Amino acid sequence: MIDPQLLRDNPDVVRRSQEARGSSVELVDRAIEADAARRAAIASFERLRAEQKAFGKTVSSAPRDEKAALVAQAQELASNVKQAQQQATDAEEAFTRAITAIDNIVLDGVPAGGEDDYVVLREVGGIPEFDFEPRDHLELGELLGAIDMARGAKVSGARFHYLRGVGAQLELAIMNLGLQKALAGGFVPLITPTLVRPEIMSGTGFLGEHSDEVYYLPADDLYLTGTSEVALAGYHADEILDFSCGPLRYAGWSTCYRREAGSGGKDTRGIIRVHQFNKLEMFAYTLPEDAEAEHQRMLAFQEEMLQALGLAYRVIDTAAGDLGSSAARKYDVEAWVPTQGRYRELTSTSNCTTYQARRLDIRSRTETGKTAPVATLNGTLATTRWLVALLETHQNADGSVTVPDALRPFLGGLERLEPIT
RNA sequence: GGAGACGUCGCAUAGUCAGGUCUAGUGCACCACCCUGCUAAGGUGGAGUCCCCUCCGGGGGACCGAGGGUUCAAAUCCCUCCGUCUCCGCCA
Q1: Which fold has domain A4-100?
Q2: Is this structure's pTM higher than 0.90?
Q3: Of A51, A249, A412, A415, whose CB is crowded by the most CB atoms within 10 A?
Q4: Gap between the Cα atoms of A282 and A278, Å rounded
Q5: What is the pLDDT, as a whole number, of residue A80?
Q6: Could you say which residues bind L-serine here (predicted)?
Q7: What is residue A71's predicted lDDT score, i.e. its pLDDT?
Q8: Model confidence over A6-29: pLDDT tens digits?
Q9: Active site (annotated) includes residue A38
Q10: Which nucleotide is nearest to A86 (CA to C1')?
Q11: 3-state secondary structure A217-248
């Protein structure tokens, strides 16, 4: 949710942001109207309520013979109050609907435009070249006995898979490397629930336009999360945070579930786009003024991880139209996937400024002792998808895969993954 | 799954049976000041969150786990839900 004060004082900023995203500008005016209506309704309810309270005192202290008459009078007042209260509640709800429909205010410097209008900030690492025909990650995975799509489909359907043998080990190794880096960076590890209540799901903004991406369990009214960001943001919901020891940083590990409803026939081969995968996610709560620095810090951790794994990558600054509704700016790190001849997203880090925190009612104390919404940020540190770039980049002609130095300690010193016979 | 107890403005508690000076009391912790030859004890005052209005002095409203209901009036009575605890049953 954006700052209602900003909507009132500086609606043009909100309009410009909506425009940059290609979102509805008209929503802004609708929200402003709803705000005015809400305030008027609240004022008239409170006036009547004050009157009723004063009158109630007269009734309770009145002599017995006058009481009946006073009560009759109070009855009429009560019905007016009830009506006014209903109007205030309705107006409040209408305003909340209107303002939550507005996306977060895009930060200055974010490229305008849609999905293809990103700006490449840098390309790092040499694109790998092979003197043989490289195999794709699934072929390698099958040779190594690491990935089993067929049995995944047999048991659970399309877009499900098994990681087995060195595949399973490799994923755990990547996660552990990420965790090690996160710990060094002051992140508290957190293994999170993956089933959450509706209010947490909507509070984090995942029940908006893309709600058909989300698995839902009607019998229990719970949602399966597509990222631990949901549980990490909900962790401090309704709390007033203490930043006297700096930002609060968490590294959340969880299995993630996505319906991939809109992805049609995209990435149907292998484990690039699957219904279930694992992810280590960074999450930070900071003061609003520290958010941009924290965002850069997260990006640096992500780049450090890709470098440690010897992957070629580029960093892009996502265009306004491609931002999630909560994000004010988003950087993606994309790794080179040899058999596709292009970069594919491995990580994403979003600065949600105070948008998410306002919805979830997460605040901190300012110097004057008042409360104010905090900023929240999230960023990927490792996922199952990384296996794709890792296997393809470090493959050898015989189908074996060289393990990057940084991962060896997590694989018992293993230097090479060998095809199984 | 069954039975029961409970949820009060940081923490701990009173208030709920018998609805109305509850404008929610008290203790601890906290802040300011006073007193005191110690960082102790004591005294006075302050202090929650959210929202609305404001001539920026202040004024008003909401919040007793959440949401409804009854009533002129609800922390208090009724219903639903959530959570915690105890006992029983069942089970990885």
Answers
A1: Helix Hairpins (1.10.287)
A2: yes
A3: A249
A4: 13
A5: 86
A6: 227-229, 258, 281, 378, 380
A7: 81
A8: 999 999 999 999 999 999 999 999
A9: no
A10: B68
A11: ECCCCEEECCCCHHHHHHCCCCCEECCCCCCE
Query: Which nucleotide is nearest to A70 if distance is taken from CA to C1'?
Result: B72
**For residue A58, is pLDDT > 80?**
no
- Complex prediction ipTM: 0.84
Q: What CA–CA distance (Å, rounded) separates A248 from A235?
A: 11
Percent of chain A with pLDDT over 90: 73
Q: Summarize pLDDT for A85-137 with one digit per residue, the tens.
A: 888 888 998 999 999 999 999 999 999 999 999 999 999 999 999 999 999 99
DSSP A402: E
- Which of these ranges, A55-69, A195-209, A247-261, A301-315, has the smallest mean pLDDT? A55-69
Nucleotides of B strand lying within 7 Å of any protein CB atom = 20, 49-53, 60-62, 68, 72-73
Catalytic residue among A38, A159, A258, A358: A258
Catalytic member of A46, A345, A365, A400: A345
Determine the length of chain A. 421
A294 noted as active-site residue: no
Query: Would you call A400 a catalytic residue per the annotation?
Result: no
CA–CA gap between residue A93 and residue A99 (Å, rounded)? 10
Return residue ranges of chain A for CATH 3.30.930.10. Answer: 119-417
How far apart (Å, rounded) are the C-alpha atoms in residues A240 and A364? Answer: 5
CA at A158, C1' at B47: how many angstroms apart? 60
Q: Does residue A297 surpass a pLDDT of 90?
A: yes
Nearest protein residue to nucleotide B52, judged by CA and C1' positions: A43
Q: How far is the CA of A362 from the C1' of B33 (A)?
A: 34
State the angle between helix axes of A386-393 and A166-184 in degrees (0 to 180), rounded to the nearest 10: 110
The pLDDT, as a whole number, for residue A198 is 87
Every domain range in chain A assigned CATH 1.10.287.40: 4-100
Known binding-site residue numbers of A for ATP? 258-260, 274-277, 345-348
| A240 closest-nt by C1' vs CA | B49
Burial A2-36 (b: 16+ CB within 10 A, else e): bbbeebeeeeebbbebbebbebebebbebbbebbe
Rounded distance in angstroms from the CA atom of residue A198 to the C1' atom of nucleotide B90: 30
On whether the A119-417 domain is CATH 3.30.930.10, my answer is yes
Strands A276-286 and A248-257: antiparallel
Q: How far is the CA of A375 from the C1' of B52 (A)?
A: 26
A415 is catalytic: no
Answer yes or no: A348 catalytic. Answer: yes
